[in-house]
Structures are given as structure tokens and as C-alpha cells.
Amino acid sequence: MARTPSNMLPLGTKAPDFELVDTVSDKTVVLSDVKGKKGTVVMFICNHCPFVIHVNPMIVKLAKEYQEKGIAFVAISSNDVENYPQDAPHLMKEKASEEGYTFPYLYDESQEVAKAYDAACTPDFYLFDADMTLVYRGQLDDSRPGNDVPLTGTDLKGAMDAVLNNKDVDAVQKPSLGCNIKWITT
Question: Helices marked H in the chain — which ranges?
């Protein structure tokens, strides 16, 4: 199990736009389609990564809680499905159903979106404010598979609460840690 940290895209970056297929609805969506009224969480995840499997219950819980408050969630998988077939779009759709995702689960076949976000690992979390300016990037919390730290979502939750309360998000942010994105090799 690789332990790859986030690249930590600079705070203040505008959200890179995208046009990707939502594996849940089979529709093509752009960023403005999934943008939240008060904020937007963009997550790079995949089906097979043990780090993502570990945090899935908290992702689902936070999405349900914060979507009602005006923060949208969108998940993107950018993995090479030729070498990692368990991350194929039809299996992404199954995973979304199994986990109870209440958000789009997009497939980044070209990996251009992951590159635009400077994503490095799964899971990798980005929170943009209502103006689509990056205010948080990094970990969900300190919990990792096998470290016995409870799964709380504290870091991302604190950032979302700050956005909702028109407060500054703490600039001290820890990188996420997980499996590296499975890049296509030519």
C-alpha cells in the first residue's frame, strides 16, 4: 500500500473547469453543473484504494450533512483502468450505489483533470468557496487504515464550517495521504 501525500495546490487557486462523464447518471457534467451555492468539495478517489475504502463512510456522512447546507460534493476517479480494471466506470457506478454516494462520481479518462488539480493521491480533498477559490486542500482527518485514530472528518469539516460561517479557513493544512493516482504510462 503506497503512502503518497497530496501535492497541496496553492490556496487561492481558481477551480479548474472540467467536462466529465458522471458514472452514476451516465451524463456529461461540467464544474458549474455540480458547483455548490456556498462551497464545493472536489475529491479524487477510486474504488480499490484502502485509504479511500477507509474514509468512505465519513465522506458519505459529511456529504449528506453539508449538501443540505449548500456545499456540493463531487468525486473524480482518474486511475488508469487498463492496469487497474477494478476502477472502471461501470464498477464506479456500482461502488457509488453500494456506498450510498449522494454526489456525482466522475471518470477522468484522460487524467487531464487530475493534472489540472495537481492531484497526487486517493483520497485527495479540495474545498472551494462560493467563488470557486481554493480555501482548503489536504486530508479528511488524521485517521488512516490501521492507525487506530477515529474517523471524524475534523479537518475538512472545520474548513467547511469556516466557509459556511464566512470565516477564514485555517491556513495550516495537512496533506492527505493515500495511494498514488495510477497514471497511464505510454
Answer: 31-34, 50-67, 89-99, 112-116, 154-164
Q: Which structural domains are found in the chain, ordered by start?
A: 4-180 (3.40.30.10)
Q: Cell numbers of 83, please?
A: 492496469
What's the residue count for the chain?
Answer: 186
Q: Which of 110, 99, 42 is nearest to 76 (CA)?
A: 42
Among 20, 43, 18, which residue's Cα sits nearest to residue 121? 43
The pTM for the full model equals 0.97
Within 10 A of 154 (CB to CB), how many other CB atoms are there?
15
Report yes or no: 141 and 174 within 8 Å, Cβ to Cβ: no
Q: What is the pLDDT of residues 104-114, one digit of tens each?
A: 999 999 999 99
The pairing of strands 105-107 and 134-138 is: unpaired
